[in-house]
Predict the structure of Transposase.
Amino acid sequence: MTKQHNREKQTAVLLSAQQKRKEHKREQVFRAIEEIQKSGKPLNFPNIAQVAGCSISYLYKWTELTEYIHDLQSQKTQQLNSLESKEPGHHSLKTLSEVFKQRIRELSDENRELKRQNENLRGHVAEIFELKSECERLRTQIKLLTTPESSPKVVSLNSVPKNSDNVALQNPSPEITRLITEMGIKIGVRLKQEIAKHEPEKVKLAISAFQQYRSHNSIKNPGACLLAMIRDEALPNVPQKAITPVEDEFERWYRQAIESGFCQDIPKKYLPVQQGEILVRVSNDEFLSGYELLSWRIAKAKMELDED
């Protein structure tokens, strides 16, 4: 009896200790679930077993714990689904995105419409400029048609010519007439009109140019040639003055004096002349100007003495 009693007592103690461990482990599992929910980690068996300090198989032994965990997981899934299906709020990103997209579509449509109107306006502007040009052309044409001067005039053959015609056909001066007739040229209407357009002196110069040209060339139509020269106000060629021996001597010596550095290089036309004698600039450092102004003959003699 005593042994059996002790055995029963030990069994009761073991069962009580086992029950306490079971309750303690259960409390650990519940605390682990709460901790995982607060941290936001996924509520699954591996995470619960790691936080509670037990194995995954241990959790599956407890039917009530397994069902409890599954219930929590299904509730979490339902909450997520409800959040996704929930209508977005007034200030949610989804709502703002839709608003912006709609606004972009409206602005794009408005931009296309403005472009279309702009193209139409460009066409109208082009038409306006074309009409303006046409109006200017018609206005000019009307002005020409309504101007009295543009209307054709009928002149009688027996009518007396106006003063302007008399001026155009008036006879040249006696001197010009003599110069032309001496060359055997008849003074016709066209020649009279051309002579009247120019000054008498220019006409005389043109006649001299014609005489000079005629003396060296054969002319088939002298009247037409003279008319052209008067119209162009031709000038006679002036013969060049022949170089005298003295001038030729000066040119040769002056060129040699400049090349040797005896005289400064001054063009002949800028050299002064005194009593018909050309003065040259002879290089001389004793003068402040750096040269001495001498008659070219004296300078030539001095140059020859220096060479000796």
About this structure: The chain has four domains: 22-83, 99-145, 164-232, 245-307. Residues 93-146 form the longest helix (54 residues).
